[in-house]
Predict the structure of Glutathione S-transferase family protein.
Amino acid sequence: MLKLHGTPKSRNFRCIWAAEEAGIPYEIVPIGLGAPVRSDTFLKVNPNGKVPAMEDGDLVLFESLAINLHIAAKVGAPLCPVGDDYSRALQWTLWAATEVEPAAGQWAFNAYIRPASERDTGQAAAGAAGVAARLDVLEGQLTRPYILGDDFTIADCNLASVLYGAWGNKFDFGGHTRVKAWLDRCFGRPAALVARKLRDAA
């Protein structure tokens, strides 16, 4: 059984969703932020002192999107595509991490995460502009129900999960109707609903 370390309100949400999509049994080890992630016990699991982390037998992984790629590979297609589509799934996963997440985080911290007195409206606007620029790219690629075609894959899980905060916190998707419909489709999936319920209850 997979052990997924981290509260469902953390990036562990992504891994819980992937495990649900894969139909793989898992246990949530609810490590909170702060002192728990700096404990000697947890640092043996993730020396970075961050969540999530995963244990799968003798294999220990950190980085949520890498964990998700591992989970998908355990069950194969369609969640983990093959051939050229596997390379495309890697492309979109890395794009989510390097292009989308920094801008989405900049917007989120200054739009709703930090206390109102600590938010910087200029940083929020810059983050929003950065997200919108990436959504322009994605809008042009979403010509079918999911990123790689008719089947939901780990590329959808990874990219959509990076955009979950924007989707759930009233980011302006105006002009990106395909992206908004795709996100609605992804987060309405039964596996996503389970992960969302766990996140909301945490």
